[in-house]
Design brief:
hydrolase; zinc; 2 strands; Endonuclease III, domain 1; metal-binding; glycosidase; two-stranded antiparallel sheet; DNA-3-methyladenine glycosylase I
């Protein structure tokens, strides 16, 4: 079937898992499951920004290095980073050393604090953009991601284009883009049905 892959363990998964063994645990345990933790949401937005122009596998294999470099993506701590921290990160071979993307994470950490002050949590803001109705399978953008991207940019966020935000929404469970027939799709649907989006 379209979009499916029969893995060596006999489990039918989304076909993109075939590209790398690194993807399987991420696909089975994280991708498409709803998240309300502000730190995880900020981390994913940041890593999606780093992915721009690169493969997700590149970022995924470096994720623990990114977490160490950015203090676990605690945006309160990252907001205090200065030029010394930027220079330190530019010397860190364990991450993607791109000044613009590094500076964007620091900027976005400050903007995240502003959002928390306004909405109570980053999660309350993010989930207010949950799409209604079906999104075409494996679309690269959606009206919801375009709207959230536009609003974030208006608030001063960087590296948050509609494609980046759409990938973020897929990963954080706002959109269930597991292929029909994927063994994990129903698990993600069940998790979403039981999930209570935070209000802000």
């Amino acid at each position: 079937m379209v979009g499916l892959y029969s893995a060596p363990d006999g489990v039918i998964r989304c076909s993109w898992c075939a590209a790398s063994e690194d993807y399987v645990a991420y696909h089975d345990d994280e991708w498409g499951f709803p998240v309300s933790d502000d730190r995880r949401l900020f981390e994913k937005l940041s890593l999606e920004g780093f992915q721009a122009g690169l493969s997700w596998r590149t970022i995924l294999t470096k994720r623990e290095n990114f977490r160490a470099a950015f203090r676990g993506f605690d945006f309160v701590r990252v907001a205090d980073f200065d030029e010394t921290n930027v220079e330190r990160l530019l010397q860190d071979a364990g991450i993607v050393r791109h000044r613009g993307k590094i500076e964007a994470v620091i900027n976005n950490a400050r903007r995240a604090q502003e959002l928390v002050g306004e909405r109570g949590s980053l999660a309350a803001y993010v989930w207010s953009f949950e799409p209604e109705g079906d999104i075409p399978y494996l679309a690269s953008t959606s009206p919801a991601s375009t709207a959230m991207s536009k609003d974030l940019k208006k608030r001063g966020w960087k590296f948050v284009g509609p494609t980046t935000v759409h990938a973020f929404m897929q990963a954080m469970g706002l959109i269930n883009d597991h292929a029909k027939g994927c063994a994990i799709r129903m698990q993600a649907e069940k998790a979403r049905a039981e999930f209570q989006p935070p209000l802000g």
